[in-house]
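re: ur question from earlier - yeah i can do the single chain one, its not a big deal. heres the input i used so u can compare w yours
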Amino acid sequence: MSMTQQATPAVGTPPAPGPEQSDGRTRQRPLALRLLARPEVGVFLGAVAVFVFFLFAAPPVRDGSSMANILYQSSTIGIMALPVALLMIGGEFDLSAGVAVVTSALTASMLSYQLTMNVWVGVIVALLVSLAIGAFNGWLLVKTGLPSFLVTLGTFLILQGVNLAITKLVTGNVATDDISDMDGFTQAQKLFASTFTVGGVNVKITVVWWLVFAALATWVLLRTKYGNWIFAVGGNKDSARAVGVPVTFTKISLFMLVGFGAWFVGMHQLFSFNTVQSGEGVGQELIYIAAAVIGGCLLTGGYGSAIGPVFGAFMFGMVQQGIVYAGWNPDWFKAFLGVMLLGAVLINLWVQRTATRR
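and the output i got, formated as tokens:
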């Protein structure tokens, strides 16, 4: 009997499903890392910590009028820190911002008083002068290729000398004359330096302007083509130019925005105190830059936000007034600022490395 073998088909078992393969381009990063990638998260947590600290260390901070004063101090820094932050995101910074504030105030005050004009004439001329200073800084930087440190350091020294020399020449003093009794003063004061009441607490109008400017700057950065240009020129201006970004226009306009901020803060100072000391403003540019850096902006450009400098300025105002309310020696203020600045730089470095780690 012959035996025949009948082949039976082998029944194969499908391989067990392995772990799903993905690469770094498609993998979804955890929410915590995505939050850390936001430049304002670190400074927000820092601002909360500083606020809570002074709530316990300085009980007067809990009073509404004290908080209004803290917000006022923060706003005078924050209004200038916003355009300075945008400029830093664009890859540059301006060392003349502090004295430019005084230049604007001196221009409006002396022009109005010496020529016996309505103060609004001085205000408008001061705006044109401030924008011209910013345009000059941007134009010189673009045309020469010099670092913004050198260009704006030169402007800083020029403005510092001009402020003192022209004020002494025109008024015979280091301060301008009182303009509080001139035409248009009351209307200009309402716009730049008025006070309103909320719940029985007097709040300066600069707090409102600060928040309005912050919202506008955030919208520009996140929702407009100009905001994309700012990040592009700050990241790599040659690549930005290759894809059609108007690098020259963006750089110059950013310096002009700093000029606008200097004009606005200068007008606030003028209409708050009625007179201007020509030697003021030196050192304030470092405060504005530090507020932007603490707010998450990098000196190398291409990274940052408009919200971060708001919290950075609030930290400055909180520390400045909190030290006073706590009864400590106010000489410690600069030491606190140095610690906050170094801490912010280290935190930003850690945040960047953590957020980009695969």
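The longest strand covers residues 195-198. not sure if urs matches, ping me
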